Protein: alpha-amylase
Amino acid sequence: MHYLDLFNIILAFLRADIMTLFNFLLLSHFPQPIEGVLVGKEKFYSRKPGSANQDMSFSRAWFTFLCLLQDDSAEALTDFLDDGDGNSLGSSKVVGVDDNELLATRKALSDARARNKAIEKERDQLLEKLARSEAKQKEYLSTVMHDKDLAISELEVAEALFNNKLEESLEEKFSLESKLVLAKQDAVELAVQVEKLAEIAFQQATSHILEDAQLRVSAAEASAAEASFQIEEQIRSASEGAINSVLQQSKDAIEKALAVAESVGDHTTKAMAAFVDNMGPVDEIISVQSQNIKLSNTVNDLESQLLIYRNDIDRLKLELKQARKEAKAYELRANDVEKLLLEFQESSRKAAVQQEEEIKSLLEKMRKDATEKRKAASKAFKLEIERMKASIEAAKEIARSQDEAYMRRCEALQRSLRAAEAASKMWRQRAEMAEDLLLKKSSSEERDEEAIYSVNGGRIDLLMDDDSQKWKLLTDGPRRPTPEWMARRIRSLRPRFPPRKTHVSEAMTAGYKTLDLPKPDEVWSIAQEKLKEGDVLVEHVIEKEVIEKKRKALERALQRKTVKWQRTPEETKLESGTGTGREIVFQGFNWESWRREWYLELANKAADLSRSGITAVWFPPPTESVAPQGYMPSDLYNLNSAYGSVEELRSCIEEMHNQDLLALGDVVLNHRCAHKQSPNGVWNIFGGKLAWGPEAIVCDDPNFQGRGNPSSGDIFHAAPNIDHSQEFVRQDVKEWLNWLRNDIGFDGWRLDFVRGFSGGYVKEYIEASNPAFSIGEYWDSLAYEGGNLCYNQDAHRQRIVNWINATGGSSSAFDVTTKGILHSALHNQYWRLIDPQGKPTGVMGWWPSRAVTFLENHDTGSTQGHWPFPRDKLTQGYAYILTHPGTPVIFYDHFYDFGIRDIINELIEARRRAGIHCRSALKIYHANNDGYVAQIGDTLVMKLGHLDWNPSKEVHLDGTWQKFVDKGPEYQIWLRQ
Structure:
């Protein structure tokens, strides 16, 4: 309500009070009855018609009263009291009123005026309070409206946030759906690649490759199903999380809006209470002016205004209810979206199932095609075998004819030798004749034109008229029976191009005489001299050796061709850190190798190692080292070590590459020996190209006062432990490894003491240097109880697997678990070789493609002997690791010094024929005190121990099995025909 309206109401009340007073005066002076006259909205009172003077007096009084209402009080009162002739109203002549009454009337008028002024003053105060209350009311109203707008804006923001979240969830759904489609496309592409691999495998006609392709197909199916399941799980979790978060945010926003509305209601109630309190003076005025009955109408109006405010509050509550309804609608919409997501997941699942069925049908078709191709390939393979058998027979026939020709030539040589011995006397005479002729210095004109002297291969040949003797002497020469030492020397020679011999016709037409003829004693001492390159007998012996080597090489090639006539892509494709999966590693040194010119000796063995079937050679540590063995490195870029110079190292690696062998460098990354002492006498200042300081050493190394970060592994106490968390250290190590790869020629790494730092750094180094093969030495103690090896070694192999997993699977690791178990298992405890899941008990059983199996190395064996393998069980141990999955390692001492080289070569040949690789399937049939039996792949079965077992008697082992190796109770190996 406006303050002017309130003022008019108060003024009306005041006028009513004055009218009441005026009526009282009229009634007191005019006792005649009066009647009310309605003038506008006001009702005035007048006398009934009477005398003229009385009417005039009444009219003057009425006019004066109206003027009084217009605030002209003095003039009206004067006019009221005086008549038109200047006579006073108080004159008794006119109105008949005495002076006392007039004075009383004037006093009453003055009192009314004073009271009017007081009322006006109180009116002004009330108006001010009314204005203040109205201002407060407007402020509260603006606050309510602001809070209302704020609540509406928050609701709109919540709605927008909900819509954004919904759009984000839909976008995420579509992105996950696209990922699912891409994953399924990858699965289809993988299936196509598997089909191509299967075609290649069938073309190569090898059963083990066919099995590998089938394994890849099943792996592709499993990976596709797993990828589909993971993507669906991601869609479901992401959608549920987005919807739940949106619903929670919407509920929070609604609760916040309700709280704001409640606070607004409280503010409104307080405002109304304050407003009612501010109206207290009006109540006091009404109580003072008890005669003003109509003042209650004002209160009613104010109550009506309060009702209006309450209606506004109700309207706000309705709007809040509407907002709640909208929030509920949003919640229903979210539920609908969730239902749509569930329907989408169901449709995606159905689509995935349908695609899986299509893939299965495609794979079934591939299997049928593969079966047909295998039959065709088998037929072609049989034809190829027949052709190769024919070629073998032809090669044998050629070798037989060559042997016969060789024997004939040997017999001819023997006859020539006998003839030469018979003619030795004639040779002596001719030599004496030549000596006489030289002493006499006969001229060329006086010489016998039929006698010519020449030198051939360091001995004199006298050409005579008898052509048969000439040819015989030029071709054969005098010989005696070849001594044994000379025969050994002949066998040790290698074929070279002999010097060109002088032809008879050239000798006869040359017409010259030598001036440096030997003495007779020198001529006849030739029988005791070593044979020379131009000798005929040496040439025949060398020729026979070459033919024999070619024949053996041809036989080996034909034998390998009957098993696999072509290397598959899997045998040549290298993966960083893990090779082809078919590596056989040779540790090319022992603890004492530094005492010899080792690089030169190792280079001479490259061809022999390659012929044996070895694919990689593990070199000793190449860097300058405080200890001669190389495991205490100092200057990493100085490769002149106790094993040889850097030039000899490069030459040795080059020879390995010429023989198709990988060269694995032994790198020590955990620790490094310092070159200088710090001012406080601690050896922690490094020299050379990598001039590091204490900041490159871990701070928890108790001996070298490092200032780096704490170590991420175990402490090696003999040298400063390098802090690989430092960026500059990792960068320098990467550059050094790339230098070893690119400039020196190493193909891979053997990583020393990897327990000292995290496998995550190894992953970074392997990614930077990209080695063909990598092996980590994680040597940890096995579990023992009461001095006996525990059966359960899961904790031990779990620690090795954890390290491999930390490298991201980019590096292999030595299977120390398998070595320790074999120590006890080969002593009639073969039950140790199988775990409760039917798998091998070492790392080989959990991650065979990353398990590097071995029996001994430079630490466990050699002259150190920290953990030597039982010598009487070496052949059994090699029979186990060379026929099982994983990557086997052969120790130098066993191969060259222990007399079991032929056994190892035989086991390597069995592994090659069976096509065993690091991921080959393994099934264990028996493992008890009597023996151990296992099938590896499809074509090899092996047995350890005294167990009476034969694959031909087993129903589940179909096909024809031929015994390839039979070492009695030690081990036996069968190959499928």
Observations:
- The chain has a mean pLDDT of 75.
- The chain is about 55% helix and 10% strand.
